[in-house]
Amino acid sequence: MPKPLSITRAQLEAWDPCDLEIWLKLFGRRKSLTAAQAMAAGATVSDLLLAAGRLGRKDLCVRFALACAQRVAVNNPDPRVQAALGAAAAWLADPSETNRIAADSAADSAADSAAYSAHSAHSARSAAYSAHSAAYSARSAADSAAYSAHSARSAAYSAHS
């Protein structure tokens, strides 16, 4: 189970988003805010994904994209779709570079499969677009996570030098 998402007022103010006042209203009198509290206060899923990304929680972004893709995967029986979902789940379990590359490759293959299947019917086209978008989101989140991990390693190396 992933660590729950939460944010402090100080973290939010450090980001200085253009709509800071709107975000601060979500806090009420609290010094920190969990995802559940934010949703209850009127935050959107997009807000939570933005916060997750800003907090370096790319795993939550990938987890969300994977859950979305799994919901529409039944519309495309191609085994490459299931392989892509499995590869994304493997990256979540072990966010290594090897698993990121495998997830990227599987997502490309599934997206190609989905695009081909979509050509045959409007409903399949709609499902493929959704699967492709979710796979792209998962791949982008995995890339961002890998980049963040690399940056953290570089910072740690610099701090110890």
Description:
The two termini are 35 Å apart. This protein has 161 residues and is mainly alpha-helical. The protein contains eight helices and two strands. The model has no long low-confidence stretch (mean pLDDT 82). The chain has a two-stranded antiparallel sheet. It has helices at 9-15, 20-27, 35-40, 45-54, 58-72, 79-93, 97-118, 122-160; strands spanning 6-8, 32-34. It is 76% helix and 4% strand. Helix 7 (97-118) runs antiparallel to helix 8 (122-160).
Set out the fold topology.
Blueprint: E1 6-8, H1 9-15, H2 20-27, E2 32-34, H3 35-40, H4 45-54, H5 58-72, H6 79-93, H7 97-118, H8 122-160
Antiparallel strand pairs: 1-2
Helix pairs in contact: 5-6, 5-8, 6-7, 6-8, 7-8
Features:
4% strand; mainly alpha; 161 residues; two-stranded antiparallel sheet; globular
Helical content stands at: over 70%
What oligomeric assembly is this protein in?
single chain
**What class, by secondary structure content?**
mainly alpha
Q: What distance separates the N and C termini?
A: 35 Å
How much β-strand is present in the residues?
under 5%
Uncertain regions spanning at least 5 consecutive residues: none
How confident is the prediction overall: mean pLDDT?
A: 82
Q: Note the run of SSEs as H and E.
A: EHHEHHHHHH
**What is the spatial order of strands in the main beta sheet?**
1-2
Main beta sheet strand tally, sense and closure? 2 strands, antiparallel
The number of helical segments is 8
DSSP summary, beta strand count? 2
- Rg for CA atoms: 18 Å
Shape label: globular
